[in-house]
Amino acid sequence: MSIKINAVESGKTITVHAEGEVDVSNASELRDAIDAALKKAPERIVVDLAEVPYIDSTGIGVLVGAAHHGRDEGVALSVTNQQKNVARVLGMLGVEGELGAGDFAE
User: Fold this and answer.
1) Could you give the angle at which helices 57-73 and 84-93 cross, rounded to 10 degrees?
2) How far apart (Å, rounded) are the C-alpha atoms in residues 40 and 73?
3) CATH (domain of 87)
4) pLDDT tens, position by position, 40-84
5) Nearest to 12 by CA among 57, 44, 51
6) Domain count, the chain
7) Taking every annotated instance into account, which residue ranges of this chain make up the domain STAS (predicted)?
8) With the C-alpha atoms ordered 18, 11, 72, 84, is the resulting torsion angle positive or negative?
9) Positive or negative: CA dihedral 91, 30, 103, 52
10) Rounded to whole angstroms, how far apart are CA atoms 72 and 67?
11) Cβ atoms of 90 and 82 closer than 8 Å
């Protein structure tokens, strides 16, 4: 599967936009993009999942690991605009609180 990722800086926030399915074959690309954002030491990183229809456990592990790393570095990380399928998986795994997952795409 392919994934497109771009990051946009706005003030002290970096928004990482992902497009496509996030799975074991490409989760490292998402991790690399978030790590690059963390190196810039923003106050906040937002991972926008509006264009992600599916995420597997590897992708969720990347997000949770990044949230923990961000917390260690004093950077708040949250996910936003997750589609219903992705939100359901985050909820079933009980990680939505760790990811600040509150905004959902319709």
Assistant:
1) 70
2) 11
3) 3.30.750.24
4) 999 999 999 999 999 999 999 999 999 999 999 999 999 999 999
5) 44
6) 1
7) 3-106
8) negative
9) negative
10) 9
11) yes
